[in-house]
Write a structure and sequence with these properties.
Elements (H helix, E strand, L loop, with lengths): L16 H19 L19 H11 L25 E3 L4 H13 L3 E3 L2 H5 L13 H14 L11 H8 L3 E4 L2 E4 L10 E9 L2 E11 L4 E4 L2 H8 L16 E5 L8 E5 L4 E2 L9 E2 L5 E2 L8 E2 L1 E3 L6 H26 L4 H5 L3 H17 L9 H32 L4 H10 L2 H22 L3 E5 L5 E7 L3 H24 L9 H25 L5 H20 L1 H9 L6 H25 L5 E5 L6 E5 L7 H20 L2 H8 L1
Parallel strand pairs: 1-2, 14-16
Antiparallel strand pairs: 3-4, 5-6, 6-7, 8-9, 10-11, 12-13, 15-16, 17-18
Helix pairs in contact: 2-3, 8-10, 8-16, 10-11, 10-16, 11-12, 11-13, 11-14, 13-14, 14-15, 15-16, 18-19
GO molecular function, one term: G protein-coupled receptor activity
Subunit structure: Homodimer; disulfide-linked.
Keywords: Cell membrane, Disulfide bond, G-protein coupled receptor, Glycoprotein, Membrane, Receptor, Signal, Transducer, Transmembrane, Transmembrane helix
Length: 650
């Protein structure tokens, strides 16, 4: 209610429920329109005034509505021309009483404001023109009798028989000349419509009655042929200032003064529209669906992972199978040549079998990286590789320590190595630490299957490692074992040719380090279904590097150089290595700043005894005698049984 004045008189009228409900419906409709995108940039408002069934109060409220738009005072500006006048409202719904509605409508017509009459005016109230009566009672009575002869007077809000009259009038049909008239179900007369043409002639607007539309015949009736021809030549007026937006597009309001005008723009990516003239595009579910630009529907994302039939996976699986075949072939070759010096010098068949078995498990672990990720695969693949490869490096570490212990001439280093060299405890402890790391990883942050939605049109099904720290700790521990193994093997790299396992161990560790150093930046920057393929490649390179460096040279000697795979050939190699060691020791004598004590190999070959020479009195012949004595001792020991013990223990 916007009426600020209270009704001075109280009229005994019943509360009209239907009008109240229609008012609530209008308020609800306006709020729904404002809260939706039906009229973008436009807000509807309303003002409701109580007329108190008084024309004066209704006129006062109407004057407020006719005040100028955006004016602080509710004042109507009187002008000669109201064509450019902008009032506060665009339309007015009239009162349910005819007297008030008719009075208000006359003032609204001056402002060219539309008034929507209440439904009651058309349905139940008959407008009757009352003649002016005389003040004389006699003349008044006579005049009333005259009026009653051909018309009826009905008092406002009087429950009478006028409804029966309306029902009777609906069935009345009459003619006026050639025109026939009748009433419809609503009581409105079907007089048809005149077709008017507005034409601008010499700057003046003229209105021409071109035809009449007959409701009964549903046809146009023209006055003459000329008018009909002109009417037929009229072009259809397009009431829309914008073309219709098709599916895949949405309406965008233009910057013109007409808010009904718009332009059609394509729906952006991951949006769609499946109807015409949509105000906005609908959003696809970005996790499971996608849509291109100007799309009419959403498309389901394709689930991708490293499939078994992928070309890169087939290549890696071929290398995997080849590695397993090579591992089995090496095991068969070593088994058939068990008693040969090459196999014995490799540490024995048990150690070789353990290393080959670790290679077999490492190759098999790469198969868990291919195919659809599952919880079992995600939890198994990294830990299976980590434990098997740590066991392999631990076995190689014991071999490198054994070589360093056998051919080291430093007493302090030999003492330290003898205390530390316990093959089985070393293997168990080194492998056990890796198993503890993997157990903690699986307990507190186990890997799981994850859907990666970072790529717009596909869903990458991958394994989340659970904890990058645990994954890095597992790989870092293997790297520490490999580094210790590399240092130990590097110190014993200058050994006899048949015993030179340290050189091959060093080469295998270098290949391992290069592969995993390259792996770290590639793994950190790669994403998608080929991320597991990167780790498969690195694992294969590491396995092939160690397998080729440690076992292929021995297989080559067993198969292609059988003449060097004999005990005499190994003894000859040891003798030559001992001679070279003697020469190096002689050179050290001449370079030593303390020539009174020169360490020369004694007859025990593995120990040193100082030979004292008096400074300034030792001649060159005496020096030669000492060297000859050392050579004889080396030769005698070479022909003895001590090198045989050393060969069997390496």
């Amino acid at each position: 209610m916007k009426n600020s004045e209270k009704c001075e008189k109280i009229y005994e009228y019943s509360f009209e429920i239907s009008v109240f409900l229609q008012t609530l419906a209008m308020i609800h409709s306006i709020e729904v329109i404002n809260n939706s995108s039906l009229l973008p940039g436009v807000k509807l408002g309303y003002e409701i005034y109580d007329t108190c069934t008084e024309i004066t109060i209704a006129i006062a409220a109407m004057l407020r509505l006719l005040s100028k738009f955006n004016c602080s005072q509710h004042v109507v500006e009187f002008q000669c021309n109201y064509s450019n006048y902008t009032p506060r409202v665009k339309a007015v719904v009239g009162d349910s009483y005819s007297e008030i509605t008719m009075a208000v409508s006359r003032m609204l017509n001056l402002q060219l404001i539309l008034q929507v009459d209440s439904a009651f005016l058309s349905d139940g109230i008959i407008k009757v023109e009352l003649n002016k009566t005389l003040s004389s009672v006699e003349m008044a009575n006579g005049r009333i009798v005259t009026i009653l002869d051909d018309r009826i007077i009905i008092q406002k809000d009087l429950e009478g028989l006028y409804t029966h009259l309306l029902e009777a009038l609906k069935n009345v049909t009459f003619t006026d000349g050639e025109s026939e008239f009748q009433f419809d179900l609503q009581g409105d007369i079907n007089i048809g419509y005149n077709v008017l043409l507005w034409k601008e002639v010499n700057g003046h607007m003229t209105i021409i009655n071109m035809a009449e539309y007959n409701l009964e015949k549903d046809a146009f009736i023209f006055k003459d042929r000329k008018t009909e021809k002109e009417f037929r030549n009229l072009k259809q007026i397009q009431s829309k200032c914008s073309r219709e937006c098709g599916p895949g597009q949405m309406k965008k309001t233009t910057q013109s003064q007409h808010t009904c005008c718009y332009e059609c723009v394509s729906c952006p990516e991951n949006h769609y529209s499946n109807q015409t003239d949509m105000d906005h595009c609908l959003l696809c579910n970005n996790k499971t669906h996608w849509a291109p630009v100007n799309s009419t529907m959403c498309f389901e994302k394709q689930v991708e992972h490293l499939n078994w039939n992928d070309w890169f996976a087939i290549l890696l699986l071929t290398l995997l199978a080849l590695g397993i075949v090579c591992t089995l072939a090496v095991g068969i070759i070593f088994t058939r040549n068990l008693n040969t010096p090459v196999v014995k010098s490799s540490g024995g068949l048990i150690i070789c079998y353990v290393i080959l078995l670790c290679h077999f498990f490492s190759f098999v672990s790469t198969s868990f990286f291919v195919g659809e990720p599952q919880d079992f695969k995600c939890k198994t693949r990294q830990n299976f590789f980590g434990v098997s490869f740590a066991l392999c490096i631990s076995c190689i570490l014991t071999k490198s320590l054994k070589i360093l212990l056998a051919f080291s001439f430093d007493p302090r280093l030999q003492t330290c190595l003898k205390r530390l060299y316990k093959p089985i405890p070393i293997i168990v402890i080194c492998t056990g630490v890796q198993m503890i790391i993997c157990t903690i990883w699986l307990t507190f942050a186990e890997p799981f299957v994850e859907e990666n939605f970072s790529i717009p049109r596909v869903i990458i099904l991958e394994c989340d490692e659970g904890s990058i720290m645990a994954f890095g700790t597992m790989l870092g521990y293997i790297a520490i074992l490999a580094f210790v193994c590399f240092i130990s093997a590097f110190k014993g790299r200058k050994l006899p040719a048949n015993y030179n396992k340290a050189k091959f161990i060093t080469s295998g560790m270098i290949i391992y380090f290069i592969a995993w150093i390259i792996f770290i930046p590639i793994y950190a920057t790669t994403f998608g279904k080929y991320l597991p393929a990167v780790e498969i490649t690195v694992i294969l390179i590491s396995n092939y590097g160690i397998l080729c460096c440690m076992f292929f040279p021995k297989c080559y000697i067993i198969l292609c150089k059988q003449e060097t795979n004999t005990k005499s050939a190994f003894l000859k190699t040891l003798y030559m290595y001992s001679s070279q060691s003697e020469s190096r020791l002689n050179v050290n004598i001449s370079l030593d700043s303390r020539p009174n004590e020169v360490p020369l190999p004694n007859h025990n070959f593995n120990r040193k005894s100082p030979v004292t020479l008096e400074q300034g009195k030792a001649s060159q012949s005496q020096m030669a005698e000492h060297v000859q004595s050392a050579r004889k001792g080396i030769a005698k020991n070479t022909a003895g049984t001590l090198p045989r013990k050393r060969m069997s223990s390496i």
